[in-house]
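Private note to self, pasted from the team thread so I don't lose it. C-alpha cells:
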C-alpha cells in the first residue's frame, strides 16, 4: 500500500514519470510500482481488467461529483427560500403566455423554483443510489476464476453491493446517462429562471436589478447594464442537453460487452458536471445580490386587468352565476375599462352595474390586488 500511496502522491503533485512506451495509465502505474516495490507489482493486475477498473473508477468519481452538485443545489435552494421569505408579501403579476394573468407574490414565484430544484435533488439522489454498485471482479466481462470476495471489495469502497451481472458491470453506462439527464433537467430549470431574470432586469419590466458582479456595461452605451451571467446560464443549458444526446448516440448501437467507443463518456460527463456547477454558483450569487423593485412589481400587478378572474369568482360565489356566464360578464367589463383606459378598480359601481345589475359594492373590493391575494391565502 505504501508503494501505491507514493504513486498517488506523485500523480497529485504532477511529478509522476509518465512514459509513452506504456499504453495507458494502468500500465504506467504498474511499471512505476515495480520500480518502487519490485516483483510484487506484477501481481497488481490479478483478477482484474482495465474494463472493470475503469468502470469502478468512473462510478467513484461520479459519486463524488453527484455529492458536490447536490451540495450546490442545496445552496441555491436555501438562497431562493431566503429570498422568497423576504418577499412573501411582495405583490407581482403572475403570467401565462407572458401576459399578465393574476396577482401573485414574488415569494410564491420563487418558491416554484425551490420545488423544481427539490425534484432535481431527489432525482440526483435516486440516480446515485442506483449507480452505487461496484463493477470490480467482473474483469473483462466474464468474471474471474480467482477466489475473490466481490462483496468485501464493494464494502471497502463504500458501494452498496457488487454489480450483479459481470457483462453489465463493464458495458453499461446508463448510470452516466441518468446523471446527464438529471443535469439537463436541472439546467433547464436554471435556464427558465435565468430567462426571467433577463426579462425582469430589462427597462421594460424593471422588476429587479443585478449587482455589478453579475452584469456588465455596454462598450458604447453607458446607460446599459447587461445581465451577462443570466444569459450565460441560459446558454449553457445547450451544452448540458447536447452532452446527453452525445452519450446516447455513442451508446445506442454498441453490442455487449465493452467497446472503445465508451471512452468518450468521460469528457462528456466531466464537462456537464463542470457546467452545472458553474451555473449553480452563478445563479446562487445572482439571487443573493439581486435587488427587487417592489413598486414596479405592484404597479405591473395592478395593470393588465389581473383581478378580472376575482370578479368572475365573486359573481359565481356571491351572485350565483354559472362560471361561463360570469366569465362573459367580466369580459364585457374588461372591454369597458379598456375603452375608458382605466383599471378595473377605477370603474364606478354604476358603470359595473351597467353591465350586470347583480354587481354590488362588495364586488369592487375583490378588484384590489391585496384583497385578491388574501382571498387565495397567498399573503
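Design output:
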Amino acid at each position: 500500500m505504501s508503494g501505491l500511496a507514493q504513486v498517488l502522491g506523485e500523480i497529485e503533485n504532477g511529478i509522476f514519470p509518465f512514459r509513452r512506451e506504456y499504453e495507458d495509465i494502468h500500465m504506467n502505474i504498474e511499471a512505476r510500482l515495480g520500480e518502487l516495490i519490485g516483483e510484487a507489482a506484477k501481481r497488481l493486475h490479478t483478477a482484474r481488467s482495465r474494463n472493470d477498473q475503469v468502470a469502478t473508477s468512473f462510478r467513484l468519481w461520479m459519486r463524488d461529483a453527484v455529492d458536490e452538485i447536490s451540495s450546490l443545489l442545496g445552496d441555491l435552494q436555501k438562497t431562493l427560500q431566503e429570498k422568497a421569505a423576504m418577499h412573501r408579501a411582495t405583490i407581482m403579476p403572475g403570467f401565462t403566455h407572458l401576459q399578465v394573468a393574476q396577482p401573485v407574490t414574488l415569494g410564491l414565484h420563487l418558491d416554484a423554483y425551490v420545488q423544481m430544484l427539490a425534484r432535481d435533488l431527489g432525482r440526483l439522489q435516486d440516480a446515485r443510489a442506483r449507480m452505487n454498485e461496484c463493477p470490480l471482479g467482473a474483469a473483462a466481462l466474464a468474471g474471474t476464476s480467482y477466489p475473490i470476495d466481490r462483496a468485501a471489495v464493494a464494502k471497502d469502497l463504500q458501494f452498496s453491493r457488487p454489480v450483479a451481472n459481470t457483462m453489465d458491470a463493464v458495458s453499461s453506462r446508463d448510470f452516466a446517462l441518468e446523471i446527464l439527464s438529471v443535469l439537463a433537467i436541472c439546467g433547464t430549470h436554471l435556464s427558465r429562471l435565468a430567462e426571467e431574470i433577463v426579462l425582469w432586469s430589462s427597462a421594460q419590466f424593471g422588476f429587479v436589478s443585478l449587482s455589478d458582479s453579475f452584469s456588465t456595461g455596454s462598450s458604447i452605451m453607458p446607460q446599459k447594464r447587461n445581465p451577462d451571467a443570466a444569459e450565460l446560464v441560459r446558454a449553457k443549458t445547450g451544452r448540458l442537453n447536447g452532452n446527453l444526446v452525445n452519450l446516447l448516440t455513442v451508446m445506442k448501437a454498441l453490442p455487449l460487452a465493452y467497446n472503445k467507443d465508451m471512452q468518450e463518456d468521460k469528457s462528456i460527463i466531466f464537462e456537464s458536471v463542470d457546467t452545472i456547477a458553474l451555473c449553480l454558483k452563478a445563479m446562487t450569487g445572482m439571487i443573493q445580490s439581486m435587488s427587487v423593485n417592489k413598486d414596479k412589481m405592484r404597479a405591473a400587478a395592478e395593470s393588465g386587468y389581473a383581478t378580472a378572474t376575482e370578479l368572475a369568482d365573486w359573481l359565481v360565489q356571491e351572485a350565483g352565476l354559472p362560471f361561463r356566464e360570469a366569465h362573459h360578464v367580466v369580459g364585457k367589463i374588461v372591454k369597458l375599462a379598456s375603452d375608458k383606459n382605466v383599471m378595473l378598480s377605477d370603474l364606478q359601481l354604476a358603470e359595473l352595474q351597467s353591465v350586470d345589475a347583480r354587481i354590488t359594492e362588495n364586488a369592487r373590493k375583490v378588484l384590489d390586488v391585496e384583497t385578491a391575494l388574501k382571498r387565495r391565502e397567498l399573503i
